[in-house]
Amino acid sequence: MKTMVSYITIGANDIDEAVGFYDAVLGALGARRIWQQGTWAGYGPEGDDHGVILVCSPFDAAPARPGNGIMVGLHAESPAQVDAFHAAALAHGGTCEGAPGPRETYGEGYYLAYVRDPTGNKLSAFYRAG
Amino acid sequence: MAVNISYVTLGATDFEAGLAFYDRVMAAIGWARFAVHGTFAGYGPGGESGGQTVWVCRPFDGGEASFGNGTMLAFGADTHAEVDAFHAAAMAAGGADEGAPGPRPQYTPDWYAAYLRDPAGNKLAIVCTAGQEVAA
To answer: How large is the ipTM?
Structure first.
């Protein structure tokens, strides 16, 4: 089915720093860097040749800047993957926006962590039991 | 599936205006709103909440919504006509054009896309890579 989110781009001011961060963080969730061309890098699952997460310098050549209200929620297959995602982020220049753990206010079985990348873009890792 | 986007949140400067925009634009690709929790509104394909979702929201920190530079959310379309309809719906609902519907062979031979911004300035793309439609 093609009618879904195809991909998202995330702005980076220092592509080398960003690649270091996303290699570690998305690697913890089972993704890999598929390609890099200049200041663009694409990440996706096995078998994907385009990329689901594209880290890039902005199209308009102005500095990258995080948006307020924008967050990318990434699927995790276990609470352990959420933990690994959060630890990898903090070890590679990210900042904590919410420690790994259950979020009872969302409902039963939710386990998330929130971080920001070195540019300030907000991400979560999202696990839901069942 | 390893590594997938579960959801994306997009900040709305004016929550009601955000709903009006996304209700109309997402319908062009078969998405529908399935929930409103306070100032969070969830959209999913076919109005389903179980797969990928997009949430239009007021920012978590209570501050003003802003768009990111370098941030763009791209939706997949099944047909070129859906790309055209998504872009047209956005223009009619207060969006701003960032690239008219059409082929972009410099990306891939089958890339047919349009680019736009929502009323809060968030940049969106609508992309079909299914190639030319063939009459049935």
So the answer is: 0.92
